[in-house]
Amino acid sequence: MTEMVYGSMPMRVTEPVLPRWWRTIDKWSLTAIMILFGIGLLLGLAASVPLATRNGLGDFHYVQRQAFFGGVALVVMVAVSMMPPAAIRRLGTIGFFFSFVALMLLPFFGTDFGKGAVRWFSFGFASVQPSEFLKPGFMVLAGWLMAASQDISGPPGKSISFALAASIVMLLAIQPDFGQAALILFGWGVVYFVAGAPMTLIVVIVAIVGFGATIAYESSEHFARRIDGFLNPEIDPRSQIGYATNAIQEGGFFGVGVGEGQVKWTLPDAHTDFIIAVAAEEYGLILVLIIIGLYATIVVRSLFRLMRERDPFVRLAGTGLACIFGVQAMINMGVAVRLLPAKGMTLPFVSYGGSSLIAAGITVGMLLALTRTRPQGQIGDILRRGR
What we know:
Layout: H1 2-6, H2 17-24, H3 27-47, H4 49-54, H5 61-81, H6 85-109, E1 121-122, E2 127-128, H7 130-148, H8 157-174, H9 178-194, H10 199-219, H11 221-231, H12 240-251, H13 263-266, H14 275-307, H15 312-336, H16 354-370, H17 379-385
Antiparallel strand pairs: 1-2
């Protein structure tokens, strides 16, 4: 009777969080990430045992740590992927702020662990590399600033983001960490290009980067040594690149067999920067192609889903996240086969390293969140209606 007089009250039916997350997430990308993590554990079983032996630790010490940090990374990834775009924007901005402050404090409180570059904070039981966490935060912040600059009376987001990128590059050059600096500049350039930067300006920026690289070569012995080693047609067989190249050649198509590889006994960074050499030697080209295919699946599917987005922030930030994730993997593998100068960059989800694993979890968590299916008109529909 009450409904007949006053009318029925509309009841809002909300779908539970987990079913909605599973329905809207990109399951192909999620599966590829899980497989990469599994491959990382498999390769860690082979690559980290010699290091543990040299350090007087248990055979599976580093594998256990990788499993622990990887588990944390996956939990963080799933939690972040459930967030809406507004929450991703807040998380990225806050994360960038704290990472940027930590980066400024590195020259005073950081350590180099004997590698010649002050990139880490050491806490005894663990270490943290701020630049790993700064990358996803900066991509989100840059995407937000450039999207906001497209609004009427919006802020000069492109100029602000460029100033931030230049500041980050200078801080990274002090360490020195030119690989991460190049990755930050590349990610910013991609977001800037997608936001509608004119080609002439892109050319000017490339010229400035080239000039900066020349200055770095002239003033930094660390940078010059790596460039000279890359340009030298002869490879020192006792160098890291020499050992890695030889391991890849020995692996051939099918590999020398599980546990039969030798590069892990000679390379100090076989479990981190040169993990792909271990994969190529023991499992051959087949596993390397599978790894490349998994990274390509994540990046390409993410970019295709972002192309259908109507929200400028989602498109820009998502594109930046996808590109730095894929390019970091490309740089790591390119160094191992001597297509690029040595960079000291990990392979996301595969290399050992707590900071690398958790930062990769945050990066792909943000990417999965931004590429989730949402109830909105696609950008193609808007363009067709505008004709």
